[in-house]
Amino acid sequence: MTRARPLDLLTLTLLGLGLLTLGAGAFFALTAPPDADQGYVYRIFFIHVPSAWVGMVALFVALFYSIVYIARGSLKYDRIATACIEVALIFLFLTLFTGMLWGRPTWGVYWTWEPRLTTFAILLVVYIGYFVVRSAIEDPEMRAKASAAISILGAINVPITYMSVVWWRSIHQVQTFNVTTGESRFDPAMLPALFVNLAAFTLLYIGFVRLRSVLAGREAARQDLGSPVAN
Amino acid sequence: MDSSLLNNPANPFTVWVYVVSYAVILGYLGFLLWRYMRESE
Q1: Fewest C-beta atoms under 10 Å: which of A9, A66, A76, A122?
Q2: A86 vs A29: CA distance, rounded Å
């Protein structure tokens, strides 16, 4: 019986710190003062905003690695892009779920076809399609090229989704915390919970992508009949 | 929506969000680590 090789120190550190920060984030979030209009339901934002932030950043990172793959042709970059999109989908589904559970008590509905939710739904469908296409193509090079094309074209919808609340005003409020300008609609007493959770989700995202990429590299090596990791 | 729901710190919407979110994050981490251990053996 052989022992599993330990993970690299950076990945372990990121995941460990991410979990610790997540615990601290839970404490800050669940002790944050109530909102004047939304009472305690607004505490959902402390999960909703960081997961949306991490999901969208992950899609931009995937775009970067997809372009690098097209430029250099190394399957390593395809694996990193795929890991980013897999992790992004986890966080984007959390965004969807938390948004729906916030919408019901505040809007009165779980879902409505307004611009932000519609562009977000398109975003999810495109990146689910990314994995459908990957599973349908056996040749690794062809699969990587098709995946990179979807990642590059799909990323066009990321800024559209992010800006949809500004461009087409509807039921969804504008960004509560604008990560591009730093403009905040949170009371200062609520900001520690937001920032700690943002840090936790970001650390976990990087740790997840590193772990998933290592795993994908090993699976690829095994499929190549025990040869060293391809490319 | 009645304010008794919004003013309840343990309202079901918030509770479900936190329970499911942490379950998904920890579950995904556990799934990756399980696959890593299996792949490394």
Answers
A1: A9
A2: 27
State the nearest Cα–Cα gap between B21 and chain A, in angstroms: 7
A36-49 pLDDT tens trace? 888 899 999 999 99
The HSE-up count of residue A182 (CA atoms within 13 Å, CB side) is 0
DSSP SS3 for A35: strand
Q: Rounded distance, CA B27 to CA B18, Å?
A: 14
Instruction: Enter the ipTM.
Output: 0.92
Tokens at A144, concatenated: 């990587």
Which residues of chain A have a CB within 8 Å of the CB of B32? 208, 211-212, 215
Facing residues of A184 across strands?
Answer: A177
pLDDT beyond 70 at A73: yes
Q: State chain A's mean pLDDT as an integer.
A: 90
The CA-atom distances, in angstroms, between B19 and each of B5, B7, B23, B26 are: 18, 19, 6, 11
Q: Do A43 and B14 touch (CB under 8 A)?
A: yes
Q: For residue A11, name the pLDDT band (cuts at 50, 70, 90).
A: very high
CA-based radius of gyration for chain B: 17
Looking at chain A, which residue has its C-alpha nearest residue B33? A211
d(CA A184, CA B19): 27
- Number of H helices and number of E strands within chain A? 7, 0
Cα–Cα distance measured from residue A185 to residue A208, given in angstroms and rounded to the nearest whole number:
30
Quick check: B13 and A41 CB within 8 A?
yes
pTM: 0.91
The reply to whether residue A211 touches residue B33, judged by beta carbons under 8 angstroms, is: yes
